[in-house]
Specification:
This protein has four helices and five strands; from the N terminus they run ααααβββββ. It is an alpha+beta fold. It has two domains: 51 residues, no CATH class; 66 residues, Beta-lactamase Inhibitory Protein, Chain:B, domain 1 (2-Layer Sandwich), CATH 3.30.1450. Strands 1-2-3-4-5 form a five-stranded antiparallel sheet, with helices on one face. A hairpin with a 5-residue loop joins strand 4 and strand 5. The two termini are 25 Å apart. Keywords: Membrane, Transmembrane, Transmembrane helix. This is Glycerate kinase.
């Protein structure tokens, strides 16, 4: 979700709660906002626990990972697809490799996927 949309919804809930129920409505809206933030934090912690348990830079199938990538994808979504953290190759480049030797190299800027390329074990290279 766009951060501006989330902020707007939170402010709308606070204003609506205040207008309809007074200070109790504001407290109720704050409770909903805190609950939503806790859900997001729980999702992130579960993802990091799963990714931290897997070998770094490993992926089940690099070709399948490469086919599911698209420009603008968030880092969190990329880690969910890969199932592990990538190995840092350069300043903004990370790599995931499967057991067959195929690998996917991705370039991230500001936490978003900008470009990626598939490196096959036989030397053939495909790019985004």
């Amino acid at each position: 979700m766009n951060p501006w949309v989330g902020t707007g919804l939170a402010l709308a809930a606070l204003v609506a709660g205040g207008l309809l129920l007074g200070w109790q409505g504001v407290i109720f809206a704050m409770t909903g906002i805190v609950f939503w933030l806790l859900l997001q934090m729980s999702r992130l912690m579960r993802l990091m626990k799963q990714a931290g348990a897997a070998p770094m830079g490993s992926v089940a199938n690099a070709v399948m990972l490469g086919s599911k990538l698209h420009a603008g994808m968030k880092l969190v979504d990329l880690i969910t697809l890969a199932g592990s953290l990538g190995v840092k190759q350069a300043a903004e480049t990370y790599r995931w490799q499967d057991a067959g030797g195929d690998a996917v190299e991705v370039v991230l800027r500001k936490g978003r996927l900008v470009e990626w390329r598939l490196v096959r074990a036989d030397g053939v290279t495909g790019s985004s």
